[in-house]
Amino acid sequence: MTAYANSINYLIGDVSLDHHHSYPADDKTHDTRKLTSIELIQIHLEYAEHRLRRKDISHLSESQTSNRSKAIQVLRRYRLNGIFPKHDDNYLFSEARRPRFIDHRNVHCAVGHMIKETVGETLAKDINSQFEYAYVHEMEYQPLRDWATVHGLDIDECRMIQPQYLPEINCPIFMSLTEQGHTEKLAILRQYRDNQLTRSLIGRIVIRTYYLSCHVTGPLARRSPQFRRTLSRLLTPIVDNVETK
Q: Which of 62, 64, 166, 173 is 20 to 30 A off residue 235, Cα-Cα?
């Protein structure tokens, strides 16, 4: 099966964007050219909910059918609430989207929220402690599969629900180097940050200062191709110097 690492969902990609006008929506109609990250997630979850409701579930028991209906209602409320996990500073310089089960603000992902609201917080936190950044298909954890079975869901449906997220902060380094096709330099900078800068007080101050500045320089990099090109040229000798150390 095709994997969609840079899409809103690893299993089905961005298919929700092609279909979200083909069924009734209970919130505003979106202009797909101007979507925010929250709107992208909401459109995906609306599509996932639509598919869950349309599936033939005649093979399920009465208890499973009832539990499934309750879980889908939880998913709907979660979608409309519009509060979703974010990545923190630990996930900058990323080349792709990635899920997060429970974030640093205690915001649960869609599947995690469904678990929390149906059986309580303990199972969700147990899963998060082992699989915080994992895809559902990577979670070799029987209690998760048992929960899905009890609630009339299969693992592929949980995979279809699970969004994946871009880093929270607009990172000008990421935008500049990615645009120029230098993703290998991102890996070098990540390693230097994690293996060198984080080990000293001055290095940690440099990291924190950069993260704080991203709130200004990130939007500038997004708007200005010239700024991105200039930053890329400035970064090249720095990366070359780091690589030789």
A: 166
Tell whether the model's pLDDT for residue 72 goes beyond 70. yes
156 and 181 assigned to the same domain = no
In the prediction, which pLDDT does 210 show?
85
pLDDT above 90: residue 55 = yes
In degrees rounded to 5, what are phi and psi of residue 102? -135, 130
Range of the domain at 139: 15-161
The two structure tokens encoding residue 129: 């402690």
Task: Indicate whether 61 pLDDT > 90.
Answer: yes
